[in-house]
Amino acid sequence: MQKPLKIKLLLVDDKENNLLSMESILERDGYQLIRANSGKEALKILLKEHDFTLILMDVEMPDINGFDTARMIYQREKLQHIPIIFITAHSYGDENIFKGYKAGAVDYIYKPIQSELLRAKVAVFVELYKKNHQLISQEQKLKAINKSLEIEVKDRIASEEKVIELNKQLLKNIEQLESTNKELDQFAFIASHDLQEPLRKIRTFSNRVVTKYKDQLDEEGKMYMDKMQNACERMQNLINDILAFSKIALSKDALVYSDMNVLLDEVLSDMDLQIQEKNAKITVGKLPKVYVYPGLIKPLFQNLINNSLKYSQKNIQPVITITGKIEAEEDSSNKLTVKKYCRIQVIDNGVGFEQQYAEQIFTMFKRLHGNSEYAGTGIGLAICKKIVEEHQGYISAKASVNNGATFTISFPAEVHTENIYRIQDKDKGRETQHI
C-alpha cells in the first residue's frame, strides 16, 4: 500500500506573530509546518531538508531580505523545484514585483493576510505538487518497466542467438552422425562380407573331415563336429543378417509407386516352404498403393512374417492376418495441416510377450527367448525398424503373453516437396523427377 504523501511548508518571517498567524491559518489543513525566523535560518534548514512543497517567505527581513534569500535558494539544483510565495506589507510597483519574480517568486500575498486567500493559494500549489509527484512516480515506474523490457529483450535476443547457435551445432552433429552411420554401415557390410570367406573354409573343411573320417571318429568326436557345424551355421545366419541390416541405407535407390499386395505376394511365394512346414494360415487384406522402396519393403514383410512363424505357440495353428489402409492425421506442428499415412498391421496368435518389452524388441541382438528355445540372431526386428525409418515412418508393437502380437507400421503415404526423390511409376513404366 502506497504511503500518504507528506506535505511540508517552510514559513520564513522575522516576526513571531506573523509566523503564529500563518500557522493558525494552515494547521487545520494538516500540513507539516516548519518555521524559520530569518533568511539565514531558512538556508540552514534547506541544507538538510529538500522535500518542501512550498515556501512562504516575508520580503522585509533584517539580515537577508526575501529576494536575496530566494536567489540563494535557487542556486542549489536540489531546491529549484520548490515554489516561493512572498509575504509583504508593501504594494510594490511593477519594477519591484518583477524583481521578486526574477528572484524566483511564483506569487505574492499582501499583509494583513486573508486566511481564505492564503489557504486557497497554498492549496493550489499543494495540488500541483501532488500532481507533479504522481508524474514523477509514473515516470520512475515507466523507467523501471522500460529497463525491465530492455533486459528482457536483451535476454531474448541472447536466447535466440543461443538457439540459432545450438541449431547450427545440432545440424553439424546430425551431419557428422549421418556420415558416421554411413561409415559404420559400410564397415559392417565390408566386415561381414570379408568374414564369409574364412567361414566358408571352416564349413568346407569340417564337412570334409566328417565325410572322410566319420568312421574313425568316436561319438564324442562326432558330437564336437556337429557342434562346430551348428556354430558355423549360426555364424552364417548372423553374418547374413548383419549384411542385410547394413545394406538397408546403401541399397536404397528410388521411391516406386507400388502395389503392396504384389510385393507381399512375392514374399509369401518365397516363404511358401516355411509356411507349409508350420501349417500356417495367412490372411491378407487389400493393401494400398504407395511410394516405397520395393527392395526394402520385401525384407520388411519377410522379417515380420518370419517373426510370427518363429514365435508361434506349440500345438496351435499359426494364424497371421495382414491388413492395411490410408489414414489422415493432424500434423502435430501445424493443426491446420492434415497428413496421410499408410498403416499396415501384422497380427498373429503366437506366444506374444510382456508389453514392457515392446520398445526393446527392436534393438539389435535383443532377444526375449534363449537360443535353445527359438533360433535366431536378434536382428530381424531391428532390420524392420530401420527399414520403416528409411521411409520416414515408425513401427510399434502391442502384445501380451500367449495372446499373440500386433505390429503396426506407419509411414507417409504422400511424397513431400521438401524431399527430392527420383520416382519411378511402376504401373505406367516411366520415371518422373519430383522436386
Overview of the structural elements:
The chain is α/β, with parallel strands linked by helices and 435 residues long. The protein has 3 domains: 8-113, Response regulator (Rossmann fold, 3-Layer(aba) Sandwich); 153-250; 253-434, Histidine kinase-like ATPase, C-terminal domain (Heat Shock Protein 90, 2-Layer Sandwich), CATH 3.30.565.10. Helices cover 50% and strands 21% of the residues. It has helices spanning 16-26, 39-48, 66-74, 94-103, 115-213, 219-250, 260-270, 272-278, 294-310, 380-390, and strands at residues 8-12, 32-36, 54-58, 84-88, 105-110, 255-259, 281-284, 289-292, 319-331, 334-348, 394-399, 405-412, 421-425, 430-434. The protein has a 5-stranded parallel sheet with strand order 2-1-3-4-5, with helices on both faces. β4 (84-88), α4 and β5 (105-110) form a beta-alpha-beta unit. α2 runs parallel beside α3, α5 (115-213) crosses α6 and α6 (219-250) runs parallel beside α10 (380-390). The longest helix has 99 residues, at 115-213. It is rod-shaped, with a radius of gyration of 48 Å. The two termini are 66 Å apart. Residues 416-435 have low confidence and may be disordered.
Outline:
With about 425 residues, the protein is of the alpha/beta class.
What general outline do the C-alpha atoms trace?
A: rod-shaped
Number of helices: 10
Number of domains: 3
The secondary-structure class comes to alpha/beta
CATH class of the largest domain: Alpha Beta
Distance between the termini: 66 Å
**Helical fraction:** 40-55%
Average pLDDT, all residues: 79
CA gyration radius, whole angstroms: 48 Å
Name the CATH superfamily classification of the largest domain: Histidine kinase-like ATPase, C-terminal domain
What string gives the helices and strands in order?
EHEHEHEHEHHEHHEEHEEHEEEE
How many E strands?
14
CATH topology of the largest domain: Heat Shock Protein 90
